[in-house]
Structure formats: structure tokens, C-alpha cells
Amino acid sequence: MKTYLVTGGAGFIGSNYIHYMFKKYGNNIKIINVDALTYAGNPENLKEVENKDNYEFIRADICDKEAISKIFENNDIDRVVHFAAESHVDRSIRNPEVFVQTNVLGTAVMLNCAKSAWELEDGSFKPDKKFLHVSTDEVYGSLEEDGEYFYETTPYAPHSPYSASKAGSDMLVKAYMDTYHFPANITNCSNNYGPYQFPEKLIPLIINNALQGKNLPVYGDGKNVRDWLYVEDHAKAIDMVQEKGKLFETYNVGGHNEKQNIEIINIIIETLQEMLPENDPRKKLVSKDLITYVEDRKGHDRRYAIAPDKIKAEIGWEPEIMFKEGIRLTIQWFFENEDWMKNVTSGEYQKYYTDMYSGK
């Protein structure tokens, strides 16, 4: 039985990955989920698995070397899947230091602890140990609207404190692979969407606001382009990279779903209007009249677009869920989990779990 150490597993992508892994492997794996439970970490995302014998949650900060070392000492970890990161660009613009602390220093702690646990006396590493660092396409900077794409060989050119901190963490992983021959991979993914996404991000924000008849904010002219990846497709890619990928390689994970932000908002409004029953009072609230253009974000990258050619050729992964289907699945999930959204937007989940894990 392989033991997986997942950092940031109570967050959006991490929790979806854990659900996917249990769905695929059942009781044949063990998952240890380490999360500091900042605002974006919500154990409610994992209520369905929290009582499984082969699942363990540990509240810890990845910057806490003593806590992370203890996890490695007490468990024979086979796989590390490192999601934990501060990830919201707007927050990074307001408070860059937190992003450097978590994303760079936290990654250094994870690398050092894994290296210490896995390294043999001759400097080689125990067989079949793998570290996967989950990163972002934002490290590559911005593309013009000319059909170019990000490849694994694209030079890094981050523009926000968030993307700069992720670029720094990527460089650390690359350095460990080059210097120590440390068994690792890096994945750089495009924008994810799907269940459990914190509602400060575009898609859940627009769904939630539209259903309440609130303004739908659009930065600048709304024509910034992102490549959207359904989160379960991303989880599949991560699993496939760890099991089939070549060590020391970087793999770009893209969705083949390039859309302007204003397109996304219009699609969400139209899909909500289609999916809401005629007798649902929210149907009258959902309207394109709610779209409100606001001052553009500082340093706002114009376009991201990933070419996932390498991961398809070497591993056989490609996205299965296109945006039209994925957005319906996402909206349906939010319809079926309205209490989750209310708890998150009110902050009740934070108080409950802070009290629980502080022993109150």
C-alpha cells in the first residue's frame, strides 16, 4: 500500500485530488493530508472521506520544519503531492510577503524533509519515492493574442507577486533535481474550476453573485483570456505524472478551453438561466444586466494558453471534460451544495474548524 503525503489537501484542487484518488484506488492507498487551514482550507471539503481508516488529517503549516519532519519520521511516505500554496493574485498584490513565506520557504521545507527521509548513505534515494510539485502557468508570464502557447521550454516571466513566488518554488524543485538528483516532477497547470472552489475565484464568484442578483465584476475590458481545466482532469494528470512520468521532467497540464473572462460570465449566466426551474425565484435575478466593469487588476496578464503536447505524447493524458460540460457539472454541484457555499461565504466553516483543532 502506497502512502501519499498531500499538502494543502483541504483546499480546492487538493480536496478534489483526494476524492479522485480514493475513487480510483479505494483502500489500496493511504493519504495523509497536511493543511494549515488558512481561509481557503476547509475540511468540510473532505467530509465524505474523513472517517476512512486509510485517511489522516494533520493540521500543520508547511513552513514548520519540526512538524513536517515528524510526519516523515512517523510514516513511510512513498509519494508527496505538494499543492499547498497561497494562490490568489489579488491577495498577493496586497500582501506579497505571505506568498513568499508559504510558496518559497514552505516548498524548501517540504523538499528538505523529503530529502532527509528518502536519502541513502551514498547520496542516492530509496527506490520508488516521488515528489510532485504542483505549479501554475502564470510563471510563464503573459501571451499576446496571436495564437502562441506556453511550452515546458518557455522562459519564466512572472508578473505578479503570486506568480513570482511560484516561479521561485519551481526553481527550488529544479535545483534539488539538478543538485541532488532528487526524485521529483513539476506540473504547471492552467486555470482550474469545479466543485469546492473558494468563491473569491472567478467562476464560483459569478455563480454565487448571479444567484443573489449581485453585481458581476469584470476587470478592465473583460477580454483577458484564460485556459480552463476541469479540476478532476487535473487530478487525473497528477496521478498519471507520478506513476508514468519521467523523473526530473516538467509537464504542462492544459485544458484546451481558452475563453475571455467576459465569455465565461456570459456562459455562466446563460447556463444558470437554462438550468434553473421556472418556479425558482432566482431565475429572475440572473441577468446580464448585473455585469459591472471595474478598474483592471495591477499587472493583469492578458492571455494564458498551455500546450499540453508533452504530457499527451509521453503519458497519454489529455483533458476529457470540455467547458460546456464542465460548467454544467460545476453549477449542478453548487445547486446541490448550497449549505457549503453559505458556510464558506459567511466564514462559519473557519470558526467551527478553528475551534475543533484548537481543542475548544
Automatic annotation (TrEMBL):
<dbReference type="InterPro" id="IPR016040">
    <property type="entry name" value="NAD(P)-bd_dom"/>
</dbReference>
<dbReference type="Pfam" id="PF16363">
    <property type="entry name" value="GDP_Man_Dehyd"/>
</dbReference>
<dbReference type="InterPro" id="IPR036291">
    <property type="entry name" value="NAD(P)-bd_dom_sf"/>
</dbReference>
<keyword id="KW-0456">Lyase</keyword>
<feature type="domain" description="NAD(P)-binding">
    <location>
        <begin position="5"/>
        <end position="329"/>
    </location>
</feature>
<dbReference type="InterPro" id="IPR005888">
    <property type="entry name" value="dTDP_Gluc_deHydtase"/>
</dbReference>
<dbReference type="GO" id="GO:0008460">
    <property type="term" value="F:dTDP-glucose 4,6-dehydratase activity"/>
</dbReference>
<comment type="similarity">
    <text>Belongs to the NAD(P)-dependent epimerase/dehydratase family. dTDP-glucose dehydratase subfamily.</text>
</comment>
<protein>
    <recommendedName>
        <fullName>dTDP-glucose 4,6-dehydratase</fullName>
        <ecNumber>4.2.1.46</ecNumber>
    </recommendedName>
</protein>
<keyword id="KW-0520">NAD</keyword>
